Structure prediction request, 364 residues.
Amino acid sequence: MPLRTTSEAGVSIQGPTATLIDDDWYPALRTGALRTGKLKTAMLLDIPLVLGRRGDGRVFALRDSCPHRGIPLSVGWFDGKRVTCRYHGWEFEPCSGRCELIPSLTKIDKLDATRIYATAFRCEERDGHAWVFIPSPGSGKRSTGAEPPVPELAKFGPRYRTAHLWADLPCNVDHGIIGLMDPAHGPFVHQAWWWRSRASIREKTKKFEPIPEGFRMSAHAPSGNSVPYKLLGVYGQPVETTIDFVLPNRRTEQIRCGDKWFSSLTTVTPVTASTCRIDVIAAWNVFSWVPLVTPIAKFFGAKFVRQDQETMIQQAEGLRHNPSLMLIDDADKPAKWYFALKQARLDGTGKHPLSGPVELHWRS
Ligand code: FES
Ligand SMILES: [Fe+2]
Prediction:
């Protein structure tokens, strides 16, 4: 994913496909959809998956392909214990992928079915996501114990409400991610009385600092020009917000106001090399006294995500013709850091684009 400099002013970003980052966790689907005995399909990083929940509650993810002749395992059967291929009836234990029965074998056959495996991926349930670890090709399917921990939404107390929002985006994961961290589109894409208007644009100064494989917008008082943040003023306590971005695709936001808090984890997940999906999971204990707070939050959150989605659908129209693009300072600086972090991860150099805290300025 080389970055070509096209002019003093800008850096070109690449066309419709993106290099994907493996050896990490990605959310495949919502675990509420996984009922014992049912199989569900998902696509992650161009890999077709079949997911399910065993009778004992454990979730699993297999490559949706029988190792015998490649028919999708998802068209077969699942009894809560074993996945049975619909073609020749091979039976697989889905957490390990181990083949436990080949019905066609006779007593004189020497083949040991249990030495055959369907490709199983590590799969963990957190915050209602089925997280799947996608190893680099050829690294083997079993855990090495060196995987990063499963991502988790931060919570700051035992009682909270939650919501999940998502949208398919017709662009590659890089465009999805830089759209996510882009501060300058807010007043144009997200114009609404309840959020902010174009006329409310003002100059912002934000401090950033490096964190492992990412960067943090240091704790700050949030923008005074958007209504939800103004509403937090009712608590009469200082409001502080921290936003992190960490490879491969995670943005977390934490807003604290005394013992009131809001926390979100947004991921932009490559479905294929040219399409992605945005998921937002959130938990909060603010405004718990407001009736219908969850449907209200979901309504406005969904509107917000839809505005991004509509813009990216329009952008995808333009990107089809492979235009050369640019990233400008300072509003696109986080996007430049993202590309540099990603390149460092792919090259294995571990080089961080930030050597220390910096201040960025933009109008939004
Ligand atoms: S293709 Fe699956 S058992 Fe033959
Ligand atoms: Fe947006």
